[in-house]
Design goal:
Number of domains: 3
Number of strands: 16
Mean pLDDT: 92
Number of helices: 15
Low-confidence stretches: 22-28
Helix content: 25-40%
Strand content: 15-25%
Distance between the termini: 67 Å
Strand order of the largest sheet: 1-2-3-4-5-7-6
Largest sheet: 7 strands, mixed, barrel
Length: 512
Amino acid sequence: MRHTKAFRAALIAAAVMFCCAGAQAAGNTTKRLMPLVSVRTVDRREGTRFAAEPVKGNVSAEIATWTEGYEIPPEPYYVDCIVSYTGTDGKVTVNKNPAQVKVRGNWTTSYEKKPLRIKFTEKQSLGGLNEGQAFKNWILLAEYKDLSMLRNKTAFELGRKILGESLYCSDCELVEVEINGQYWGVYLLAERQEAARGRVNVPEPQKEETGPDVGYLLEFDAYYRLEDSLHRFTIDYNNYAPLIPFDGTGKAKPFTPLCTNPGHEKDVVGFTIKSNIRSEKQRDTIRDFVANAYVIMYSAAYDGKALEMTADYSDTVPSSRTPREAVEAVVDVQSLADMYILSEITCDPDIYYSSFYMSADLSGDGDKKLRFEAPWDFDSAMGNRYVIENARGFHAANVVDDVNHEYKAINPWLTVLMRQEWFTEMIARKWTDLYDRGVFGEAVEQIRSDSRKYKAAFTRNYQRWSNMRDKSPLDYELNREAFACKSEAESAEQFAHWLERRIDFLNGVWHK
């Protein structure tokens, strides 16, 4: 049914009034343990179906291959809504600009409690995140497979301190969520990975701008095939030249930047262009830039040669610079060292596969460097899955198992410069500074503090959702220690203890 503008406006007005009433009832100007995000759909007949039923199409198709009688659920879809935010002081803010909300994510969409994306029609601040800056897009992470519900929060908070002010990492806060008056549990309110002033600060192409001199946000992403051809590409990593993994022994055998599963094609992990590009010229330019930045890195690290890109980024030629200077001319190496530290301390099992972001500003005023930032997706990391369970050993630039333990893989970007002493010294200097300032110790204490502070909210969440009582949907996601936990408090302590041991191990390697 198509509604007139007047009818739709009336519906929105009614939703605003209902949202205010509901939020006031929830907050009632008294202090809350956590902020409350309330989502009220414009069409009240929708209920909670949009948040409870959809599963990403590629995920449901895979589930159907091993589940007899499985009925394919709907794909995630947007519904019109009004969003309110009740602070811990009980003050209610109703964002009167209409919004849309839908389930977001990949495998996480298969769980009963699903992550959500909120998209406002106009830019809005939300909860004071990112210093109150206004954006259209916000994320609610469900934290379903992290029974402590604190891993993403800890990683984001560490990331913001490690990367500093010049690089982007999502701000976040724990909130409780209700949908059309129904309690929906504890979520982590976070930002969306996007090119925007105040987030990943590279200039988005303007409307009808098709030239290559713009900004680009990229994801190293095995799901790249799901994107249209304009927003994806692959590179050959200097003709798949072998890398030396960093495993702490100095005796690691060379390893291809590809996975070792013969069932996969060579380009198993490609790139998704997250920026809103509009032309094949833009896609081809960033593809060439990324490919040749890697060639320059590899040539400097393995061949001792200095190369530089041609003016159009399509090729490399010998350079008069030193090999290190050649790398620093096209790569923000401090950002790579920072991302190595965060990746090594968190031991994200998807490090070879997805959620690894980089950017490049190729505009007229841009620095024309590949920059590593916007860390994301840590709910399987930090002692939750079967990865570095004893908190010792090397992960980020090492050969790792895929998440199903079927083949081996590596992250070539984190590995390629690890043979260079000047680069590992950069890591050691930054680690030492962070450790001596107490950044890592504070992260451990914050886990325990959050667990105590929000105990009542976590209890409500696990009364609403069954994943603490019945871990069968997560049996392949959790290692033995994580699976054995029977409460959020136990899960948080298991997490904190793992992180303490991880910090101690890495400090013995990198502290100078």
